[in-house]
Amino acid sequence: MKKISMIALTILTLGVTSCDMDKMPYDAVPTEEALTTIVGFEEARAGIYSVYLGLTGGSYVLAPEVQADAFNAVADFSNKYGELHRWTFESTNSTVETIWSNYYAAIGRVNFFIDGVGKIDENPEIELTETQRQQINVYEGEAYFTRAYCYFYLATLFCRDYDVATAASTPGLPLQVKYEPKLSATQYPGRSSLEDTYKQILEDLEEAEERIETAKNGIADYDRYINGAYVTVNTAPKNCGNYITVDVVTALKARVALQMDDYENAAKYAGDLVNSNRYPLSNTATDFESVWKNDKGTETIWQIAMTSADDAGVPLGTIFIGYPTTKKDYIPTQTLIDLYNEKDIRLKTYFGKYHLTVSSGNAADIYFFNKREFDIRINIFHL
């Protein structure tokens, strides 16, 4: 009798479990229902901003630095990023794969949002006020900016230097501007030309600028809105915001133009920001040092908010300064140091002097990279 009862109980339990499996997860919504309310768009917007916490720190910052020519590994370094530093890495290197895949994952998130905005008028269930539509216009502009940022970063790492004479025949990036998660590997887009890659970046920046600027004229008290008055925490310096503004778009346009050797426009965009007097340049050694060491200063155009300790990420400066031990992995090359003269405040701010002794017993007085703050994950646009 007991056996029969146990069997019946088991069948009943399995039956209940089977029914539960037919339900949607309690912490997720179907894709087609995700962007149907202003709350849905706000949550998706937060998801786009959250990617910057991951994509502007760790390997995304350090790997390109140690792969370039500005730092050399000490004799007994820990082999952190060793393959990249020695240029012995392959395409299957985990750091390379992570950077590539996570940036494209961010682009997919952006494409999902932009596609969702495009379907608002097609969905009779979406009811929005005019102010809410203006808000979403801002969000869409921020999404376009983020896609431009992602493609620009990837282009600087995975493509050749831009040359207007050869860009049309130089391989660029695979460009995906629609949310199509069900594509098979055989349907993935191939590499575009470098010319088309940068054309896409510039087009996205224009779309971003247009939407954010238009919304600025349509939302009352826009400056308070865009700079974080409607979020819980605002940790940015007084003169800058946590959110992407037209000035942030202009700053990235300046960087893109510089990368394309378009010096005229690079100078124009940067000059527009300098001459606006919204971001006064540091004019004393103390102020300049505060920007570098404490992330505080008037030059900051945009700074991502960190609302909890979990946002801070892992320490980034340890491979340069040796914290929490005295062991350093990478020190600046003499070629880098020679770019500065002894009176240059950047030399005293960026670098410190140190007597380095390695395990072999060899020792020397050197400069080390002096980023005192152990987390530089926050994405800051300086002039």
List keywords for this structure.
383 residues, 48% helix, 8 strands, 8% strand, 14 helices, mainly alpha, two-stranded antiparallel ribbon, globular, disordered N terminus
Secondary structure layout:
Blueprint: H1 2-21, H2 38-55, H3 59-67, E1 71-73, H4 82-86, H5 94-118, H6 130-158, E2 171-174, E3 191-193, H7 194-216, H8 222-226, H9 246-259, H10 263-275, H11 285-294, E4 302-303, H12 318-321, E5 330-332, H13 334-337, H14 345-350, E6 351-357, E7 363-369, E8 380-381
Antiparallel strand pairs: 1-5, 2-3, 4-8, 6-7
Helix pairs in contact: 2-5, 2-6, 5-6, 6-7, 6-9, 7-9, 9-10
Describe the structure.
There is one protein chain. It contains 14 helices and 8 strands. It has a two-stranded antiparallel sheet with strand order 1-5. It has a two-stranded antiparallel ribbon with strand order 2-3. The protein is mainly alpha-helical and 383 residues long. It has helices at residues 2-21, 38-55, 59-67, 82-86, 94-118, 130-158, 194-216, 222-226, 246-259, 263-275, 285-294, 318-321, 334-337, 345-350, and strands at 71-73, 171-174, 191-193, 302-303, 330-332, 351-357, 363-369, 380-381. The termini are far apart.
